Amino acid sequence: MNDISVLTGGRAGDGINSAGLLIAHLFNQMGYQTYMYFDYPSLIKGGHNFTITRAAEQKIGAHRDRCDYLLALSQDSVDLHRHLFSENTVILYDSGRVHGEGQGIPVEAILKAEQAPPVMGNSCIIGAFAKSSGIPFDVVETVIRRQIPKAAAKNLVIARKGYEAVREERIIPRIGTTCCPLVTGNEAIGLGLLHGGLDAYVAYPMTPTSNLLHFLARAARNFPLTVVHPENEIAVMLMALGLSYAGKKTAVGTSGGGFCLMTEGFSLAGGSEIPIVVVMGQRTGPSTGLPTYTGQTELGFVLHAGQGEFPRLVVAPGDPEQAYFWSSIALTLAWKCQVPAVILADKTLCEGTYSLDEKAIGPPETSDLQQSGISGQYRRYSITDNGISPLQFPPLKDAAIKVNSYAHDEDGITTEKADMVRLMTEKRQRKYEALKGEIDALECVKSYGTSSARTALLCWGSTLLVCKEAAKRHGFGVIQPVVLSPFPEEQLKSVIEGTPNIISVEENTEGQLRLLCHQHGIPVASHIAKIDGRPFSVEELDARLGEVP
């Protein structure tokens, strides 16, 4: 079984992320499934950046603790990753910056001879990699022309020089033609929101969702989409609520620190029944923490964010296919039930690059809003059996559409009367039941290999793919709740039935999903935590599973 890992390392500013992506596209052209993990400090220049691009014949979404090829544009790329080397590791390095074993490539001399900028050094080292692995140069040419169209000619000259500077070391066999589209998790979320009918996206850049802002800004050239970058996260939420009040399907993007600033507006959305979607990309906290690293510590936060009680939808996709599907569903249900929704992702999913299996997606079922017939005076908060009032937008002839952060009556007029406060609280509770009915009609809990397994890994979010790979080695099943609010208690209990031993795998200290399960009477025997800001590797989780009694 072919399974190859390529580590590309250098300094911030060397274009390491772009280099890793180009390698992913090379593998894609050779017929492989790919996954790329990008590790970088919070620096604009300097520091040590690296990507691990992995290729395999089967679906993957986690990195390995093994380096088959090292492409080193800095000395740190060699010194910091020796533990990943084996006697078969092929090392290619920039001989002007790096000293060590392997084969040196005169990157600086090639760039100088061609009068090329330093950032094109990664094209040189990629050309060298292609030769050392037996990838034909016509594949390199196809990838560079598609991925770097503005400077393709110069990059191809540099890549050819790197190609010619190397002897072949180990042949990577071609296993097919172009495999699948390559997308980041952010791009999959953006495509799902567009499918759901997104009209506006408002965000202040914050890792790891910044690239979603950039992606949708580019998409706005071809879609009827408004994209706005306000001055801070408070402005983001309030502007988004204004757009939504005016009838635009709107989403915002942020991370934990930004969502802290949004919570008052999030509560305003709940109380005033304005639909909004929040893309919440988790990273390592508390506070600033590690702003460019990952974690799964905000589940409890998003489940309880905002003062008061109001229904909310929380979905946590685990791969790009789920990110596309559930982002569309989140936007649709937020508007159908007039509630705030959260797409809870993390740095690993948002910034990871994956092969997208288009056949596995299945287009989400979306429907236009069914407006109830209005007779007589329009009342924004009309009492209804399911708690969902007719939704109209200004301007509406002969009516004022009032939304109110205060306790209010059916017309949106402020009130402190006890009976009306009770009626509106009960109305929101009925909306929760209506939302729960919507998600109960969907497959909210995914299970893999649980039919005969006595042990299953319980996971959420981006740990899904590493759990699936490690579980297969142990003969375990995998259970993944995708919807976390309203909690799919009945579905989860049905899936777990017959599997006596459940192990939660989470990137947080306490096991936040595990605690949520306990609240719903679902015991989880063991918990494996990852708390250093890095995602599980396949080997690490495999070893940790061996330690569980």
What does this structure look like?
- 51% of the residues are buried.
- The longest helix has 23 residues, at 418-440.
- The radius of gyration is 25 Å and the shape is globular.
- It is built from 18 helices and 20 strands.
- An eight-stranded mixed beta sheet has the order 6-5-4-1-3-2-14-7.
- Strand 10, helix 10 (256-272) and strand 11 (276-282) form a beta-alpha-beta unit.
- The protein has three domains: 3-164, Pyruvate-ferredoxin Oxidoreductase, domain 3 (3-Layer(aba) Sandwich), CATH 3.40.920.10; 182-360, Thiamin diphosphate (ThDP)-binding fold, Pyr/PP domains (Rossmann fold, 3-Layer(aba) Sandwich), CATH 3.40.50.970; 445-547, Rossmann fold (3-Layer(aba) Sandwich), CATH 3.40.50.920.
- The chain is α/β, with parallel strands linked by helices and 549 residues long.
How are the secondary structure elements laid out?
Elements (H helix, E strand, L loop, with lengths): L2 E10 L3 H14 L3 E7 L6 E11 L12 E4 L2 H5 L10 E5 L8 E3 L1 H7 L7 H12 L4 H11 L4 H13 L17 E3 H11 L4 E4 L6 H10 L6 E3 L4 H13 L4 E6 H17 L3 E7 L16 H6 L8 E3 L4 H18 L2 E7 H5 L1 E3 L62 H23 L4 E4 L6 E4 L4 H12 L2 E5 L1 E3 L3 H8 L4 E6 L5 H8 L6 E4 L8 H10 L2
Parallel strand pairs: 1-4, 4-5, 5-6, 8-9, 8-10, 10-11, 11-13, 12-13, 16-17, 16-19, 19-20
Antiparallel strand pairs: 1-3, 2-3, 2-14, 7-14, 12-18, 15-17
Helix pairs in contact: 1-4, 1-5, 4-6, 5-6, 7-8, 7-12, 9-10, 15-18
In a nutshell, what does this entry contain?
The protein is of the alpha/beta class. It is 37% helix and 19% strand.
